[in-house]
Amino acid sequence: MEGGRRGEAAGTTASGDGPAPVFTLEEVAKRNSSREAWLVIHGRVYDVTRFLAEHPGGEEVLLEQAGKDATESFEDVGHSTDAREMLKQYFIGEVHPVSASCNPQTSTKAFWSTWLIPIFGALVLGLMYRYYMVDGKSS
Ligand code: HEM
């Protein structure tokens, strides 16, 4: 496959064994131009610089996402299995877990799921308990 050959020829750093390099979101954010374009998809960092001109969806959309977490846009397009396979060629490392949790996008989501929803659930349960207990006693 042509795509595979290109990936190997460029000697992708993280394709071998051993732990993958870890990057913070700040490091990724600096690579946001056609000179150097990195993006994050599902917590993994991809260097798409040499893919810009080849992307079937165009260079524009990749540059728009460069330096950022592109998971949502990548998934919204409904990329094929082939496209997902291609990701491997551009993989350069993982996102630092702490820097990822500082990402305003994900941390807002984490806040809702880890705190607000359980607190709300507990409140509803508490109210229901009170309501039924009081009701039960009075009748
Ligand atoms: C390294 C990451 C990416 C790879 C390897 C990739 C690969 C591909 C491939 C192979 C296609 C052809 C259709 C398919 O097979 O699904 C495609 C289409 C497309 N991609 Fe990407 N893509 C990447 C990231 C993105 C991102 C971040 C966006 C942001 C919006 C995007 C937007 C699109 C669009 C709009 C199309 C055209 C869909 C169409 O015409 O039907 N892609 N991509």
Automatic annotation (TrEMBL):
User: Which residue windows are transmembrane per the record?
Assistant: 110-132
What the entry lists under SUPFAM superfamilies is as follows:
Cytochrome b5-like heme/steroid binding domain (SSF55856)
Question: What are the start and end residues of every segment in region (Disordered)?
Answer: 1-21
* Assigned keywords, A-Z: Electron transport, Heme, Iron, Membrane, Metal-binding, Transmembrane, Transmembrane helix, Transport
Q: Please list the residue ranges annotated as the Cytochrome b5 heme-binding domain.
A: 20-96
Per the UniProt entry, the signal peptide is none
Question: Listed GO molecular functions?
Answer: heme binding; metal ion binding
Please give the GO cellular component terms listed in this UniProt entry.
Answer: mitochondrial outer membrane
UniProt-listed Gene3D superfamilies: Cytochrome b5-like heme/steroid binding domain
Subcellular location field:
Membrane
Record InterPro entries: Cyt_B5-like_heme/steroid-bd (IPR001199), Cyt_B5-like_heme/steroid_sf (IPR036400), Cyt_B5_heme-BS (IPR018506), Cytochrome_b5 (IPR050668)
Highest taxon of the lineage = Eukaryota
Q: Which family does it belong to?
A: Belongs to the cytochrome b5 family.
Name-wise, this protein is Cytochrome b5 type B
**Name of the gene:** LOC117001475
